[in-house]
Amino acid sequence: MSRDYANRKPTKRTPRSKKKQAPSSRLPIIPLLIATIGIGGFGYFLWNIKDSAETTQPVSKPVKTKPKPKNELPPKPQDKWSYQDILENKEVQVDVPKKEPQPNRSYQMQCGSFRSEAQAESMRAKIAFQGLSSNVRRTEGKNGVWYRVYLGPYDRKRAAERERHKLQAISINTCIILLKKDN
């Protein structure tokens, strides 16, 4: 059962009859009487307790103060430890190993290894658009011929990581940083 509220005709309502009350001529005598008695009782209570409080003065004893002499410090305590005298003249010997010069390391970054040279050149072109130079090396192994895309060499690993983050920004996430082999 559905109702059509849009085309519904309003119903006539009969007004309710409100009974008007006649204004009362009586003053609120009872609440005024209670308030007057309450205020009077409270005043009487305060009048009675003002004289009932004991007025006792606290007895204070005279305080005797000794005059302090100015700039007088207590005597210096005696040292009861002997390590202070021993450590004053103690010399510590430390063996420092000599650092061996590390070989000059250089790093390179490999970003792809492909079977076809066209795929490797496509990767190299994407890298070139980022302003980085790369090269494609052909390697032969047990599995056949591979074309690898290399960047570098880098003197420090941090420089290689910086360029890897540039490539990750354009969704080239396959780059790995390797120590360069001396060939």
Automatic annotation (TrEMBL):
<feature type="region of interest" description="Disordered">
    <location>
        <begin position="1"/>
        <end position="24"/>
    </location>
</feature>
<feature type="compositionally biased region" description="Basic residues">
    <location>
        <begin position="9"/>
        <end position="21"/>
    </location>
</feature>
<dbReference type="GO" id="GO:0042834">
    <property type="term" value="F:peptidoglycan binding"/>
</dbReference>
<protein>
    <submittedName>
        <fullName>Sporulation protein</fullName>
    </submittedName>
</protein>
<keyword id="KW-1133">Transmembrane helix</keyword>
<feature type="transmembrane region" description="Helical">
    <location>
        <begin position="27"/>
        <end position="47"/>
    </location>
</feature>
<dbReference type="InterPro" id="IPR036680">
    <property type="entry name" value="SPOR-like_sf"/>
</dbReference>
<dbReference type="InterPro" id="IPR052521">
    <property type="entry name" value="Cell_div_SPOR-domain"/>
</dbReference>
<keyword id="KW-0812">Transmembrane</keyword>
<dbReference type="InterPro" id="IPR007730">
    <property type="entry name" value="SPOR-like_dom"/>
</dbReference>
<feature type="compositionally biased region" description="Basic and acidic residues">
    <location>
        <begin position="69"/>
        <end position="79"/>
    </location>
</feature>
<feature type="region of interest" description="Disordered">
    <location>
        <begin position="55"/>
        <end position="82"/>
    </location>
</feature>
<feature type="domain" description="SPOR">
    <location>
        <begin position="101"/>
        <end position="180"/>
    </location>
</feature>
<dbReference type="Pfam" id="PF05036">
    <property type="entry name" value="SPOR"/>
</dbReference>
<keyword id="KW-0472">Membrane</keyword>
